[in-house]
Protein 1
Amino acid sequence: MFRATEIHLYKLYIEREQAFNFLTKIGQMNNVNLVNCSNNPFNEHDYYKQLKRCDDIYNKISEIKNLLNLYNKQIHYCPNYEEFISNIKITEDQVIKIEQDLTHKVQFILNQQTNLQQIIEQRNKLEEQIAVIQHCKEFVYKFSGIQLGYIVGCMNTLDSHKFNRIVFRISKENGIVKFQNLNNQRTLFTLVFTLGKHENLKNKLLKICEAFNVSIYQLPEENNVETKLIELQNELINLDITISTTKQEIDQQLDFFSDIQMEQLLDLNIIYDYGYCSYICELKIILDMISATYYHLTFFEAKSQFLIGQVWCEQSDIELMKQTGVQIEIMQDINEKSYEPPSLLKTNQFTHIFQELVNTYGIPRYDEINPGLFTIITFPFLFGMMFGDIGHGIVLTIFGFYLLIFGQSIMKRIKLENHSEYLAYADFQSLYQCRYLITLMGLFATYCGFIYNDFFSISLEYKLEKFQLGFDGKWSMSESHLTVMNSFKMKTAIIVGVIQMVFGILLKGWNCLYQRKLIDFFFNFLPELAFMLSTFGYMSFLIILKWLTNYSNNLEPPSIITTLLNMVFTLGGIKGAEMYPHQVYFQTILIKIAIYSPIIMLLKPEVIRIKRRFFNQRNQQMVYNELVEQEHAQVELVKEEKYQIFGKLVQNRVIKEEKHFDFSEIYIESLIECIEFVLGAVSNTASYLRLWALSLAHSQLSEVFFKMSIEPQIQNGSIVGICLTFIVYSLATFGVLMCMDTLECFLHSLRLHWVEFQSKFYKGDGHHFQKFNYLHFLDQKFQFSTRM
């Protein structure tokens, strides 16, 4: 984890028939990064058609999922991808089998659903017709001897009022409509109108019914009403039987997709341990793996009988590839200097979250030091300095241990029981990944709380046998308690900040030596280190020296700020007594180092100019020597031909220089870098004062909450008041300190690492190692997309 794992670039030659099986074996490995070396457009690749087929199958799976949700079928998602992948083997023929199986079953279900809808509509019409006949039986047949016309049917309830008004106007008060509610959506109506007066009245009324999309029913003869009702009732019973049978067939097909394909009922623990899930989820996972395989096959350059590809991996992975039985021609280290290797950072459950904090800022380069290793300690320690409180730290530690002990079982339960709660699982998974970070943050906050002697704003009276840990509790009774604590926290923040920044500069020097950048080492690292130590490093030394000096013998303690100002303005001089012997002499040397260091940094462009001029001269001399050797070989050349050969030799010799090399840009860049470092050293040191500021805010808030709530009730001796105010105090402490202040301290600690620490040595412009691994692919797809 100190640096990216050493990897190499390999070239693979794979037969087309073995390509799919070979990639399925690579997908089981952990650290293989396929390089996209195809020259053809993506939509013109040979495997693009296979990906399009996978997309069509995805659409069919989505249709089945919609049907399962429509019929309230529970879907059992895969709770354990790792076990599922280890127990399954995918082949190239599975796509065709899955497509044929899904096409047949989906078409059957859709046809059955269409038939079901038609049968239900037919059944609804029968119910309406029966209701119309029963209604007319009590109304229309009573006026059979009178010269009246009638239209009976069923219409939408919302249109009834409008229909009544139009009929009244068109019939000119010669038509009457009677309504009766059938259900909330449909209404029975009987339209009675006079015959003889208006010959075309019936046709007009029928057109109105057609405009309102009314279902009109013909009434049987009065003598055949009962017989007709019996026939309709029998037909209705047959339709109910058909509907029930069709639903059972649909349920049977959907149960096949939603149930776990096992002969016996399984316990939830067994389902999790073996990765059992619904059949539709099995098909989805298999299709994801096949689709990922086809997608990475498009990375290969297609030839007639072979696929040619490139891969970044370790030597041990190449040995595993050889053991697969596939004939591979391997060419190691193919022009590896023209490629920037991806950064393979191996982490475990403990180091993963700390590396993610670094990766959020930027991926480390392949050959630079990874700050994630140091973040494991420095990040929770800086957090603890800001959040220092014994009680609050213990609460945070308990929560971290709770995640460590019960987090896995909670995730397991969410996966198995709350299938629809995707967000709940995703949120808790993010929290669960931070369990080690939260635990360390709580431990360091507790440790700093002992140093500050602060327990929920109360100072404790404790003393160990041989030494005193932290501040004595008697300081809390002193009037100068706040002044002393602020002085201690402020100076401690400066010392810690300077140590961390100096450490970052040392890491920069380590990077320069490892990458063999000697110019950067002598003209960047050494001047920066000298400037930092001679200024703020010296200030930290004076702080520690002042702490260790006894000023009780009527000695006036010197002001460190005044000492540093006199050192700058008088070039090393002091006013008053010396803090240590030969102080003026040492300060004179330090101030000269601080002045000369930026000047040395500005000499870097001139050194680069001299180096390049010498390099070009040496290169031309080597070309000239080759030309002389050709002349000695009795090669008769015209003068112009000599110049041509000389030019070709210069072009053929590889000169490692940038295409657009402008010294003015180097001068400007060097000047900006120098100014930025000098000003940044001041601003970054001042930025570490946030450790003191947030610690002060945390302790003062805790003290205010305690004194404004519980303390008056304790002084009054009211048990009821203590209980009530304790609830208020707990809610305020949890909401403000344990939630808001925790997040605030977390963000400030993150900023100190990203800006003040990592800016000293960390570029962060590398690119991530894109591993081709089925488990990694499924986890990423599960986290950043919808389930299914």
Protein 2
Amino acid sequence: NPPHSSQSCLSSFVVLSPFSEGSECIKANAQSCGECIQVAETCGWCAAEKFLTEGQSKSARCDDLESLKKRNCAVTTIENPRGSVNINKNKPVTNRNKDVAEKLKPEQITQIQPQKLTLTLRSGEPQTFELKFKRAEDYPIDLYYLMDLSFSMKDDLENVKNLGTDLMREMQEITSDFRIGFGSFVEKTVMPYISTTPARLINPCTGNQNCTSPFSYKNVLNLTDKGDEFNRLVSQQQISGNLDSPEGGFDAIMQVAVCENQIGWRNVTRLLVFSTDAGFHFAGDGKLGGIVLPNDGRCHLENNMYTMSHYYDYPSIAHLVQKLSDHNIQTIFAVTEEFQPVYKELKNLIPKSAVGTLSSNSSNVIKLIIDAYNSLSSEVILENGRLPDGVSMNYKSICKNGVEGTGDNGRKCSNISIGDEVSFKISIESKKCPSHGKAEIIKIKPLGFTEEVEVVLNFICNCQCAAKGKPNSEMCHEGNGTFECGSCKCNDGRIGRLCECSKDEVRTEDLDANCRKDNGTDICSNTGDCVCGTCECKKREIPTEIYTGKYCECDNFNCDRSNNKLCGGHGRCDCRKCVCDANYTGSACDCSLETATCLAKNGQICNGRGTCDCGSCKCTNPKFQGPTCEICPTCPGVCAEHKDCVQCRGFEAGEKKDTCQDECNYFQLIKVKDRDKLPQPTDQSFPLTHCKERDANDCWFYYTYAIRNETKEVYVVETLECPAGPDIIPIVAGVVAGIVLIGLALLLIWKLLMIIHDRREFAKFEKEKMNAKWDTGENPIYKSAVTTVVNPKYEGK
């Protein structure tokens, strides 16, 4: 934090957006620097003594940093402490190879880095650091085999008797430092879990079966690196029996976890193999046997036997999860196919645990353990201890091949091989200072590992300037307060900006008179409260709108507006009047003194046809308009305007030929031989117009018009371009030829149409001829040449 100086700050107000971050700081109504920095990380406190104006309360010192600077608070007097991250212990992760002759002790191996950090937290400001994790090769392993010795596991016991040496041999591929232990369990030794008849207490099995007395949990072999010792002791074990199907395995798991010294756990990878072919009892089931005391989670082994099974209930699942996590034990449930669904649900509740399918006689137990260990060791999951009130943590994982995870997935990385390095970005944020104000310690560790990271949290609860406060300062009305961070912090029982009033002696009638302007009736102009005879102005819903003045008669928001902006956006509102920025004037600072917006393309202000007023052109001739008086709807163009004068001076012709000397001397004329010699727009640094006009004889003349250094220049091509006369003979010949050709074309078209018509008619005739049918009857007008006469007298004789 920068050192303080005694430089005072001039008071002024800047209108800010109501949605600025500063509003959050002002709304908090912080009465001290310590309160201010707890609001948000963007808030700062101006500790300059003369920063406040009349009517402003102490809380006006708390604002966002940019607003404080704009309000003329010197940077050296702004209190804005920041958080930090300091690494105290940063031992690099171990690069280890099991083939190397030199072996390291477990405490010499580092898999997580760094090991200790100190974070300084300011409310609302997260601090982020990175943790690295690397699986060390040849890391030591302790494995404890916990077996159900109820009668149904008889054949399994035979296969486990040689487990020690076989498992030691297989584990040599993973680590050169391996230890194994063995324990067994049956059930609580009370009814109704076992039979309590004398004979059944000696031999709980029926028939000719020889079984050992029932027991809850027995530690048969502490963790050892001697596989043959495991085989020897396990070979001596006998099956026992109980009455109900669920077993008392949870009692055994609890004792294995908490009895570290008796079991012989080291600070290495700890594996607990839980082998059974039945379900489990849990908290509450003890009531069946009259056991109501909850499990105390302590070690109760005497002569390697659990002695309090009849006194304490079974532990709950949550209790087991806590103890297994506290003691960094990873659990492998080796259970038969029948109980797979039950133990898979249990696995989901116990972090860093696995479930394997045990064959009916436990013949596959070694493969099951190896597979489960590889699955557990390939995943790292971070957990942290209890967080102080108001503190939150966020995790982001950067795993193998750059795969990132956030949220719940930000705590873990999977598929990690030996030698792989992964990292976690952890962000810690505090929302408030703890009530005790002391440092807190949280620990972060990967589940199933003994290593942990210690994070010390220090909280910024006050400003540095508070340490320089002067108790009973004369600046606080006869020593009635502590002067710190530019303002008075009143002693108990005192109030007022300078602690000038006592809560017990305040008489409103006498003091209100000091809060009326000009002996009026309004107290503090109805915009403030009279406190100890001094007006403290009210705050508005929009924090950047402020009342000020001895009687709160001023404000910074009731000024003229332009374009819906206070003071046109070009000034500040000071006591209801606009104080304009440079180059602006007017009651609403809406009149610009700049003339750049009035410059025309020719470099002249308003094209020389008007004046620049408030940044815009006001044309003197009403026929001109436009932003720079460049538009004249009723005026001819530049070329048409100067055509007659150019024609009379360049060619001694045109309508102004007789008055040329009087009316056309306003420009300088330069003649060029051809159009290529005319000035080009790309060659000029001033506006230039190219013109093409026609005279009365239909001849074209070309010229340019420009204004350079207020001198009007006209370049004109000295020769006219007149069209040549028409050639009569080709025109007449063309017309005659055209008429003939058109006539021939019409005759050809007529002939073609007639041929087509005739062919259609002939085809029609032929078709009718083919379809005609001829009648074979006699001609009605035909008379035969033969006349036959019959004799009427002839009788045929």
Protein 3
Amino acid sequence: MPSSKASADTALPLTLELEDFKGDFSFDALFGGLVNELLPDFKEEESDSAEGGDSVPNGNLRSVSGTGTGGVPLFPAVDELLSLFKQSCKELVDLRSQIDTRLQNVKKEVNAHDTKHQRTLGELEKGVDGLFDSFARLDSRISSVGQTAAKIGDHLQSAESQREMASQTIDLIKYLMEFNSTPGDLMELSPLFSDDSRVAEAASIAQKLRSFAEEDAGRQGVTSAVGAANASRGLEVAVANLQEYCNELENRLLARFDAASQRRELSTMSECAKILSQFNRGTSAMQHYVASRPMFIDVEVMNEDIQVVLGDQGLQSGTTNIARGLSTLYKDIAETVRKEAATITAVFPSPSDVMSILVQRVLEQRVTAILDKLLVKPSLVNMPSIEDGGLLLYLRILAVTYDKTEELAKGLQSVGCGDLDVEGLTESLFTVHKDEYAEYEQASLKQLYQIKIEELRAEALQQQPEITGTISRAKAAALTTSPQQQISVTVVTEFVRWNEEAISRCTLLSSQPSTLAANVRSVFTCLLDQVSRYLTEGLERARESLNEAAAMRDRFVIGTSVSRRVAAAAATQAEAAAAAGENSFKAFMIAVQRCANSIAILQQYFSNTISRLLLPVEGAHTASCEEMGTAISNVEGAAHKGLLQCIDTVMAEVERLLSTEQKTTDYRSPDDGVIPDHRPTNACTRVVAYLSRVLEVAFTALEGLNKQSFLTELGNRLHKGLLNNWQKFTFNPSGGLRLKRDITEYGEFVRSFNAPSIDEKFELLGILANVFIVAPESLASLFEGTPSIRKDALRFIQLRDDYKSAKIASMLNNIMTES
């Protein structure tokens, strides 16, 4: 039996090729292709044995080549597969050797090709370098040839230019000789100078001849007087004839231009303008055109302008009507200039220059004529009356005309004005008015203030009641201060309104921040002076009323040794003086309240309007704040004096009530020991009622620190006055209880002052009243409990009715000695 290896080599020849490994190689596919021919037989045998029930699990195989039951191999194709795999490995090794050999050959070929390629590249680089050198030489040659050609062209062009210039010079000399033939004789000139169809050419040649003659005169050192001066010998006649001819030609062209302008033949006008532009750059033509406009030469137009603006009433027509008239007139002027601009653009070769002349003429002639009629500067010495508008009318018209003229200037600027500084020219029209504007504004404010004060005084005199025999002196005294003389917040508001209007004019007329700040500050200073003066004088008038009431009180102070009739009359007059004092007090408090409101309006106005205008300029805001502080301080000084007088007035009435109403029996009742009277004394009731009534207006009028300071001072004065009053009386225990009730009543009232120091003083008074209530032997305990009242208590103890009988003096000496 042949061996399994030999049988495998003969039965399973291999066909492995390199093509099997190219492309998308798959080992599974290669392996399947090798073994699929052997595996099907084995599968069939396995299925057959499975059907006979003799299948053996793989786990029972002892070896791959072992035998099963009855000597049958379990895997009969294993030898063929082993042989196949070995042969495959051998062929694969051979294939790898072939591939390695081929790879070595390919590497050698690649190296050979690479060497050859490097050699070729080197040769190419040398060739390219040679080409670049050739191109550089060629470019240099081309550049040299081009430069030579350019120089030749320049020489040719220069030669041609010189030839043309020589030809023109020959022609010019020929024409010049014609002009130099006979003085004043222009009849023998060439047809060129008389042919209307060749006017442009004739004008050009004439200008060249003039330039040539003037240059010749300059070379000879002879100056010219009017553009056609004495030239060198031989050209004098030519220059004179040329000047005459040019003047004649220019006049003829202007006449032709005017005729075309009348017929609105823009093409002819444009042709003439182009020719005339050769004479003085066309300046004479442009000025001639502008000067011939109807709005500059028609007197009716000028009169209509004045009529449109001022109407039949002139300056008295009011700023509103003047503003409306100016708007109408300036709108008409702008529309006229706009129409002229269309014509100028179509006619003149340099329309911007013509527009510059036109707009300048409009502003300097037509607008200035209107301003001269409107802005008649009044005298600051003999100011116009308020009935005629005063200085305010002039300032309002100035602001209106400036504003409307600025609008016109902007409109004209939008149309086109060339290089003309329209804004600067417009400003120059108002320079004479703006230089003294601040002085006029201040003078106007002072005039308004003076007139207003005179009106207020006249109204006060008309409304003040006449004191006749039918009115008693007491009633007359009560009416000494009339309401019309009081400070009015409305008047201060009017001052602010005047100032606000003036500030708006400052903002309009002041272009520079520094100028604006200076004008605003000067105008605001006027307001500070007006408000300070008005409020201070108002407070002084209110103080005069307080002084009059005080004088009335002093006149009716009488002694004790008078008759009952005299005393009754004096009491009546004292009541009248008290009523006058109360009225004066209320009037002054109202004045203070209105001052506070006025100052608040002033400060609010400064914050909202003035401050933002001063801040851009260093130091202006601070200086103005200091001035405002000084003005307010002056008002506060007058108010402070008046408030002190108000306290004097109140305390005078309190002292009068205490002196007339406080009875000896109030604190030393003959019925001591019976049920005490817990009601306050009549004097206390009257004083508290008076204070409640008179201070009601003070609580409303005063605010903040002013209110606190006033009430504190009044509380101190009231405390002192009560102490002085009580020292006039003697007290028994029941009187001490009633005093304590009075002190409680006073304390409850002063608690409305919201002044802790005053509350403390009246609380100590309540404790002090105990010196009249306790028994003599208990006085020492009062000093021990409240040592702060010892000084006042020692004085009050002497007012006890038992001070001598109870020998309290020796008792106090012992207490003081022990302490």
Protein 4
Amino acid sequence: MTILDMGHLLLVLLLVEMQSVSVLLQIQRFMLFACLLMHSLLQVSYTSWFLDAFNYAIATNMDVLNLSIGGPDYLDLPFVEKVWEITANNIIMVSAIGNDGPLYGTLNNPADQSDVIGVGGIDYSDHIASFSSRGMSTWEIPHGYGRVKPDVVAYGREIMGSKISTGCKSLSGTSVASPVVAGVVCLLVSVIPESSRQDILNPASMKQALVEGAAKLSGPNMYEQGAGRVDLLESFEILKNYQPRASIFPGVLDYTDCPYSWPFCRQPLYAGAMPVIFNATILNGMGVIGYVESPPMWHPSNDEGNLLSIHFTFSEVIWPWTGYLALHMQIKEEGSQFSGEIEGNVTLQVYSPPQGEKSPRISTCVLHLKLKVVPTPPRSKRILWDQFHSIKYPPGYIPRDSLDVRNDILDWHGDHLHTNFHIMFNMLRDAGYHVETLGSPLTCFDASQYGTLLMVDLEDEYFEEEIEKLRDDVMNTGLGLAVFAEWYNVDTMVKMRFFDDNTRSWWTPVTGGANVPALNDLLGPFGIAFGDKILNGDFSIDGEQSRYASGTDIARFPAGGFVHSFPFLDSSESGATQNVLLTSGMTKADSPILGLLDVGEGRIAVYGDSNCLDSSHMVTNCYWLLRKILDYTSGNIRDSVLFADSVKKDAALYVEDHQLPSRRTDVNFSTYSAVVGKELVCRSDSRYEIWGTKGYNLQVRGRNRRLPGYPVFDLGRGLNSTVGNSNLRRIKPPVKNKSELDMPVLVASHWLVPAVVAVTGLLLLLSFWRIRQKRRRRRKGSGSGRFPNL
């Protein structure tokens, strides 16, 4: 059996160009110390290095491969494809999940891939290490729902290891936990007689043994601990009598098991809601390729289970070793008054081609469900979260919302209720609100069912049909609208560019913290628009202290509305001169940042900053303000301070069109957008009755949205998407040493990650050298920081 740590192998491949094969063999004896030195000095590596290393691992028939590195770019396709090829060649890959905890939505690639064993870290008290990255996976957003990761956790804090020179040193990080699991894997491999290993041992069977044998920890949820702490003895008992089979991970979704089943256990199902999506992983230990023989089936345990309607999307072709099974769950209308539990099983039959047998290998997978159901809540307590119009990194350069953040400039945490807005989600649930997610256009929901549409930190454009429908929803249907925007300044974006020496091209943000020009189009029918200032400062409302972090200003607002203004510094390029003058004694001008307005039957609230809701890099939270806003937009409950006569506007705020933020003319936005150049269609995250249509009160098909002057590139569905059967799984499995896989054609230049940054003058860019960019893969070292402390 051969095990190799990829860090060691990378050094070898770098040196082999200068050394003879005989010297290479000597170097391998001292890999550990050299590897630590290399990572300590460089702290960065390139995709091409890994491709060479992976080819070496395949050529030398490695059995187990540990990868204590990673990065956020799961769309670095040469890397991702090669990982698939590695596991398809029956190499078990173990990888660290990342050191970006306690933030959610921070899984690193390749540990976030279903065919890789992703490892998180715990301390000796069985608590999740603060540095250990949390799930869910973000490949599937916005239309689907992420998978459970990490797979398992292992000890990763203050682990004793070798120093570069002599002696031992205490190390922390998921890169320490990952080789612990790799060692466990090697011990488990030794259980299987060599004569049987070829038939039994594979990435899926090993993951089955690990997740089924793991000890679930009390306290952490499934997106923090996966299956739990790795347990060598329990996994040994599973593997020693193992017979090839398929299974589903997680095998149980139990709404009564809180906090492990968070966020599902925090909000019961009810009739009329958007489908609740649960994305499970199919593990096929029977062969590298498998097929779903027939559609999944729901088997309720009692008559009440017939109130549950489940639609399934899944991988018809399971390769390599893994696939997905997504459950889209709704309670039927006849269950609108039902309160209780629904229990039953979902079954799925998988088969793989025979391997020496005369007939195919067949296995039935079971997923057990135990769900809580409550009567449909009143409209005023139902909030709809707009996920559809959020764009994240990868593939585009989407900058962070707060420009004060120096060490994490990319917006890559998913911007989902259950990733970097998970604390806000818990707060809303504690306040009695039921929060649903919309991953389709605004035409795909029935506004009469919701108190407020909540739009936070959105980067995409809007279909004309969406703008028209939202106007009608607010003015005639009484829908409340709450918008939390972000900074947008073209001059500042241009200054934030940097040079990528891999693609020999400049990278510039494709939008600001939010797409303010698009938001202004959406809010235009109500006479509301945001400006292009970048405001920072502290302020107080009714004794509540808050920080305004790189937010924007309100440029237009109708008379009769309530507008709150505060004196802030403008850090945009256009505000730089003003700030210099202010240092000479001038008084800072008030900038309007919060507006509240009655419009027809509905109510609107706009605020120029979302950092106070985002747990990723929050300075102070504004949950108190969000509650007051929702009380107003959903229930017409008016806070006396927010609606004081002193802030009521007798005259409208207004600036000319040319003074409003404009779209960039040098960016092909269709590359990143779900709107520009795309067809308006309701997807599988919307109500069943409108799947595949344009939405409510609209005809079935309509025109695409295009921005003037840009060609259209349709990237298709995301990898591992839960929308329909995965096209990516319909590929021919590669053979050994095959250098390219059959994949959908993508716009290659936007999947390649910048590695070396050229600073263009802004102080903000001085920190870019520390950031994981697209082709940058870094070692996950000390939990106390984002880079190794070796």
